[in-house]
TrEMBL record:
SUPFAM superfamilies: S-adenosyl-L-methionine-dependent methyltransferases (SSF53335). Keywords: Methyltransferase, Transferase. One of its GO terms (biological process) is methylation. This is Methyltransferase domain-containing protein. It comes from Streptomyces tremellae.
Amino acid sequence: MNKRRPDGSAGDADYGAIGERYTSYRQPEPRIARLIEAALGDARTVVNVGAGAGSYETAERAVTPVEPSAVMRAQRPPGLPAAVDAVAERLPFEDGAFDAAMATFSVHQWGDFRAGLREMRRVARGPVLLLTADPALVRNFWLYAYAPLVLDTEARRYPAVADLADALGGLVDVTPVPIPFDCVDGFNEAYYGRPERLLDPGARQANSAWSFVDAATRERYAEALRAAVATGEWDERYGELRHRPFYEGSLVLVRGLPG
């Protein structure tokens, strides 16, 4: 059962506390958006669950956003539809109300991801899309050398891909998502070749896993990374990433089709 906070947040992260500057750092990345659009196919009506400020929504489709956090709903641009105040586990729609359903960077924050996916499957006649991370790959990212508890948190929160597939049922395919060097959606791995960006407190705040680590530990991790960048240690260990146009990390697109 989700416990809703004062701003309406219903997942494990408190977006009333961490979400105020979210859109300054988390913009939809066009190259990732194209993969989502292709996976949605010819779906005209789409429910976006855990819609946040509206990343990866498009005016080309009739999107119904669902977002429990008032702070996040308030950051939605004027051109996007207002979000329905509801949680994934209890979607206020009839069976088969939409051609498709999607959730980007939100399934790991739900109180009961299986219940949420059942609801998405219930209300969607066609594909259910999840932009998420494979927890088995999360700790492979270089940030683990500097902020291990942050990525331990990420790995713990994200459901295993096999469990997502099991909960979705039907036919499921999983596609690795290449992350471009200049990715504008500032999740941790988006800065794979730009470690300096994670020295910005706002960039870290826009990644909810950092909020599960106490303030003193967060600052200690930031100082360790700052020193590694300043001394050239980071470049000695990982500098070749500055020249990679794309990075394949833990980001995946999971698509479930009715069986």
